[in-house]
Design goal:
The complex is a heterodimer of chains A (about 110) and B (about 140).
Chain A lengths: L2 E6 L2 E6 L3 E2 L4 H14 L3 E5 L5 E2 L1 H12 L6 E5 L3 H9 L8 E2 L2 H6 L4
Parallel strand pairs in A: 2-4, 3-5, 4-6, 6-7
Antiparallel strand pairs in A: 1-2
Helix pairs in contact in A: 1-2
Chain B lengths: L9 E9 L5 H12 L5 H22 L7 E8 L3 E8 L24 H8 L2 E7 L2 E9 L1
Antiparallel strand pairs in B: 1-2, 2-3, 3-5, 4-5
Helix pairs in contact in B: 1-2, 2-3
The chains are: A alpha/beta (about 110), B alpha+beta (about 140).
Chain lengths: ~110, ~140
């Protein structure tokens, strides 16, 4: 699974370059997120603009990505597409994550 | 046990493919393509979410990720509901899980699958005949 990073003024934006975060790729996603977040610091925004579909395994992997952060790191989400938004809403995980409409605008805001 | 049909149903697609995680997206793609002209966008999204969880369940639990199983799926349309039937020849299920969602504050990494199935369907039935598991899911149209 391809993840690309972009340094914004007040966050590192991680863009998921895939249409699905689901059972076949969930473990990969979690491990790649671990590598990226361990190499960086501060605030991360996961840009899900390209992700059309997430299943319960993918949701678990996003939660795992947050739990494996180090102290003084945070993970926020952006650009949830309809099915992704629905999964987060139904499971009420939208109450746990800060969710933005735009990753770029969120990355320009100072939230430290 | 035969599921009583209260209305005439029309079969939209039937397929049987290997129950492997890597094949699941292809199974879903084929089913969604067949349903695209038949149901609205909202129903299609729900079918996608429910079927992904149901197929994952077959792969991970009925066959416990062993690469020797198949899953047969049929989707039929009635007047008020879409019926999805999944059959596999793996380990039996001991009842249908309640599907209670984990508390969000617990940050659970799993346990959402049956909750999503239960939330998005109007009816779930399971039976086992011989060595065949059959799960029948109804989605309101």
């Amino acid at each position: 699974m391809e993840l690309t990073t972009h340094t914004a003024p007040h966050a590192t934006i991680i863009r998921v370059q895939a249409a699905r975060i689901d059972a076949p790729v969930a473990l990969d996603f979690k491990e790649e997120m671990r590598t990226l977040t361990h190499a960086g610091k501060g605030r991360f925004i996961l840009d899900l603009a390209q992700v059309e579909f997430i299943d319960s395994s993918g949701l678990g992997a996003v939660v795992a990505a947050m739990k494996q952060l180090r102290p003084h790191q945070s993970l926020e989400l952006a650009e949830l597409q309809p099915i992704v938004a629905k999964v987060f809403r139904l499971t009420r995980m939208d109450t746990v994550f800060t969710i933005h409409d735009s990753a770029d605008i969120a990355g320009d805001e100072n939230r430290e | 046990m035969k599921i009583a049909s209260e209305e005439s149903r029309r079969t939209l697609i039937e397929l049987c493919l290997p129950a492997l995680a890597i094949v699941t997206p292809d199974i879903l793609r084929r089913l969604l393509r067949a349903l695209d002209a038949e149901v609205g966008c909202d129903v299609l999204e729900t079918v996608h979410m429910v079927l992904a969880e149901a197929v994952n369940n077959v792969v991970e639990h009925a066959y416990a990720n062993r690469p020797n199983g198949a899953v047969a799926i049929s989707v039929s349309r009635g007047r008020t509901a879409l019926t999805i039937e999944l059959r596999d020849w793996g380990a039996p299920m001991f009842g249908i899980p309640d599907g209670i969602a984990p508390d969000p504050s617990e940050l659970a990494e799993g346990g959402y699958g049956w909750f999503l199935i239960r939330s998005l369907t109007s009816d779930v039935k399971y039976d086992r005949a011989g060595c065949c598991n059959r799960l029948v899911l109804s989605l309101p149209l």
